[in-house]
Structure formats: C-alpha cells, structure tokens
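Re: weekly structure request thread

Next one in the queue (268 aa):
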Amino acid sequence: MDYKKIQDIKKWHQENITKIGIPNRFINCDKSTIEKYIWNKALLAINNNNGLYIYGPVGTGKTYLACTILKEKLLEYKPYLINIGLNIKNNSQNMPELTTILHEEIIEKIQVPDGGSITKMKEADIAEDLGLVFVQPLINIDFVGFNTLLRKIKGTFTMKESTYDENIENESSIVANYSDCLILCIDDLDIEKLSDWSKNILYEIIENRYCNKLITIITTNYNHKELAKKYSDKIVSRLCEMCEPIKLAGTDRRLSKYQKKAAAKKNK
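Done, posted below.
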C-alpha cells in the first residue's frame, strides 16, 4: 500500500471520530495523558467485553477517559483496499469473509466469532488508481450525552402522523439505535429533575444492552448508591453487573486551569 493510501486510512479514522458522536473538544484526547493505572484498568475491562461506570466530581476527566477509550476501539475498525476479482478471507471480528467480488460489488458471507459480534460492510468505493476497492466497515460505536439523548427523542414528538417516514428518526428508532450498537457511551448521567418517562427510556436502553451483553460506558458525578436514590434498583443492579467501576478523584481541572490563567494575567 502506498503512502497516499495509508494517509487515506488515517483520515478515515479521524473523520469517524466525530461521526460516532465524540464532541469536538475531545477529538484530540490522548491516552498518554491519562494515569496509567486508570487507563489499563479501563481498557482491560472493555477488552474483556465489560462496560465502565466512570464516576467522580466535576472536572476530573470522566468524559475525557470515555472518549479516549472510544477512540482506541475505533482503531480496530479498518477500511481495506482489495484487488477487484480476488477472493479474500479475513476472520477479523470487524470484517466479514469476502467470498466473491464481482463487477465492483461485494457479496458478503458473514461469520460471527464465538462470543463476538461482527459489523456488516456498508459500501465499497472504487479507488481511482490501481483498480482497488476501498471497503468501509460500518462503525458500531456511539457516544451521546444523556440530556442530548432525551432532547433528541423529544424533538420527534412534534412529527405528525401524516408526515411519518420510516427513514426519519422517531422515539422507537432512536431507542433501538442506542440499544443495539456494539459500544455505547452515555455521558453525564444526571439525577436531577428526572421524569418517569426519562427513567423508562434509560431502563429500556440499559435492559436491552444488558440482555444482549453489549458494552456500555456510563459517566456520572454520582456513585451507585446516590444513583439508586433516583433511579430504580433494576437499572442500578444491571449497571453494577455490566460495568467495571472507575472512580476518578481530584480537583476540578477546568476550574484549576481557569484559576492559573487568571493568576498569570494578574501577575503581568
């Protein structure tokens, strides 16, 4: 593979960081800045098909850690350059066995590894040079803020039945999307001013993911006991079984950074 194609793959990964929902502020998050013990514990849990329950005070790096983990898992998805007409077998978890390539179309034969999951191929883009097919895997990772999730669903309530379109998102399709993806991060799980409807939405997503053994990452300011006071025991019980607890301590990094800047200006 030439240098240009390697760069194309790096660009593909970079573009998909935002497509899976990672906020712009965390696009460049780097695992080297995370405490080694915390990083190794979190990555080991994810690689063992467990989720994470990341909790601690405001500004301790919970979202940063979650986004860095998602970026690390995104690297496991690799687009492939394939010579047209060749039979290729690849048993990777994120790549189906390609048994036939005919007239620029890929005929898929899906293999599901034991205890694993596999993504289907989304499309095949024909490279202009070398007669290659650029095969892109369908990314099966999502990041969403809890309040953003609720607003997204509420935004569909004004849709009239007469204008219903199966291609337009509705409550059921949004819940299904976050229930079924291979890895989901629900960021900033709040316990303030929660309606029964909000709790039911969360329970439905968590229950589906629990039953299907899908990786779930939660970030919140609250420990399990505090969360249990607002949510049902059923939700917290499932999260306890699904997720490895990761406690982040320390001072508010954002506030500390602001105070240092303010002090520097004052001393000028």
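Strands lie at 51-55, 80-83, 97-102, 105-109, 121-126, 132-137, 141-145, 183-187, 215-220, 243-247. The radius of gyration is 21 Å.
Next request, please.
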